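Review box. Two proteins, two foldings.
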Amino acid sequence: MKQMDLTQLRTDMLSDDLETQILTLDRACQMVQEIVAIPQRFLIAERLHRLGPTVIEPLQSLLVKSDNSEVKILSSLVLLQLGSRAGLEELLKAVVVDRTYALLIARHLATNKVYESVDRITNRLRSTDNSQIDLIVGLLTALVELRGEVPEDLMSRFQQPSTPWQVRTLIDQISEVRY
């Protein structure tokens, strides 16, 4: 989209004419729908929330219509940032199985205090290989932020000498706070 288009869009949104504002808002929604179809989805999604509540309806529509799991996850993340829980079930499923966005999802769920994600995050920790250090640390951090308990089986597993030091260090910190 050209800068000139955005300048005109802004001018029309600030118009005193209600009909012009409504038409401009419709154009903005159409642009959002075009933007979310761009292949570099993550780069768009991480900035899309800046458009505010205007994008909620197009994203909810995209969430329903799309068969692409990445589109559903990214749309759901933006919706959650904007206070909509429309894609929450998608995020709760994805935090357990998604290979690309699980850590980002866990962070968003924790930031937005989605307490019903504690069991899902715990399940993902159980199925995560010890070599996935960043994922484990991020999931544990999200779990702590949600005030979820790290189950004894995971505490024991992550305290083993074969566990990477980053994970053991975090588990030691969690243990100190716990007791």
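Next protein.
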Amino acid sequence: MNKIEFVMYIEGLSSDKKALERTIEELVKSIRGEKDFEVESMKRDEIIETGEEPLRYSSLIEIRGKGSLEGIFKGVVRYSPAVMEILSPPKMEISAQRLANVLADVSLMMQSLMNQFGPLAAYPDLKNRPVARIGYSRDEVEDMILNDRYILSRLVVEVAGASRGVIEEDLPKALELEGCAINKYTTKLEERNGKYFGLVAFELLSDFETLVQLVAKYAPVGLEIVEPEEIDITAGELQNALTDLSGFVQVLVTRPVQEFLTKKKQTKELSDFHLK
């Protein structure tokens, strides 16, 4: 496969100009020594003061490069760019096994981040949502693969829930809400101290972008691409999937900062409150 050409924009934000300068310098050094993709050019903007509190200082790094699908996915998780553009090729083909390997790497990286910053998947109240459909005929499966360009995959995820019903009923609803068609769904759960823990295995059909989102959100411990044997991906689809992945990483790694800023704001509101 030819190398994928891209442009990546990494944004740095801080309330402290010197701290941001150090961070940008470290990023530039890391990018220059990058092994997962080839850097063709790099442009670093000056730090500007935006005037927006509390992260009032901003800087942008533009990276033009090329690399393998594996390398670019790793780069996106590592740097979580604000913008990711795929320049070429306009379309690519990848084997089911290779895509499974790429997504397995993504899952491992997301597992590591979730161990540090907490889980990612969150949904609105699903209580009043209709029961999810589980099971499709072979003709329906083939139609989705051939006409909708869906991918048939199998994922195994670790779960924990307050009740068996939350896992056995609400999780399928959540998957359906993501845009998946669930073909098979099975659980292996045990109760400990009033909560349920275990594994859920599901076979589902989805487009490429949705599959990447699911892997990023659920970090499956098992993953298999069943059909088709060769998967075609457009530059737009890859760009969207990488942008979504980067957004998920940003949510996780900035969580401590957001919590700190929220507490700081609440403290200020309390200090501004006076009884008369």
